[in-house]
Amino acid sequence: MLNDVIFGQYYPVRSFVHNMDPRAKILFVIAYIVAIFLADNFYALAAVTLFLIVAVLASRVPFGRVLRSVKMILFLIIFTAILNLFFYAGNELHVIWQWKFITLSWEAVINTVFLAFRLFLLVMGTSVLTLTTAPVPLTDGIESLLTPLKWIKFPVHELALIMSIALRFIPTLMDETNRIVAAQKARGANFETGGLIKRAKAVVPVLIPLLVSAFRRAEDLGDAMDARCYSGAKGRTKYKKLVFTWRDLVGALLLAALIAGVVLLNVYLGGKFAILDAFL
Fold first, then answer.
1. What is the C-alpha separation between 245 and 23, in angstroms, rounded?
2. Which residues lie below 8 Å from residue 168, measured CB to CB, with a gap of 6+?
3. pLDDT > 70? residue 124
4. Are residues 56 and 24 in the same domain?
5. What is the pTM for the complete model shown?
């Protein structure tokens, strides 16, 4: 039922991307998101797509596994596409179909494809981060990047720990949900037929044991941390020190080239609607 949830799962393999510093990967993902939103035409998005393909190849993560991350937001993509397709105000000269207050224009079609593809690239790029970074290094990277906030007494270590635990327990809770659903189906529960209200009622027998299991796991985790004398960031040291390497420099140069290329493509090739001038 929820086997396609990729966010929070780590794919263990030795690769160029896996061996990069987690702090660098977090910053690279932020820069990658900036490049996506800077892209103002399909040529710039093609450059971002090419960079993503290179990153996935360098990570040695199967493309199918990365593509599965899009299934989580497939409904959101379709819903957003429908809204943009019929309610985007385009040029009156480029109207394809119109009925009362609903209008379909070529600008709406181009804008819908552009936004859907941008959202697709956004999810794919961020999923590469969690697939190539284990929870502990990811926590250390977040804590290191947020170190300046310690000057204002912000609980950086605790925040990073909470984020790490949340990421770690996403796959665990998904597996628990699948087991509960399988047990309910064995008892005759039906989750696949009926209307929206009937399906919503069928989910209740799944949510209650899932919440009980989540609280039980949280209590066990708290007891385990107490048994190991965990007391927060005070006096805590690191077994593995984070060090930037030549791989991080290569990634920084490639991302800088990507952002520069996106800006140049925007300037010289125009916006996403420039294609209308050529064909209409």
1. 11
2. 8, 135
3. yes
4. yes
5. 0.79
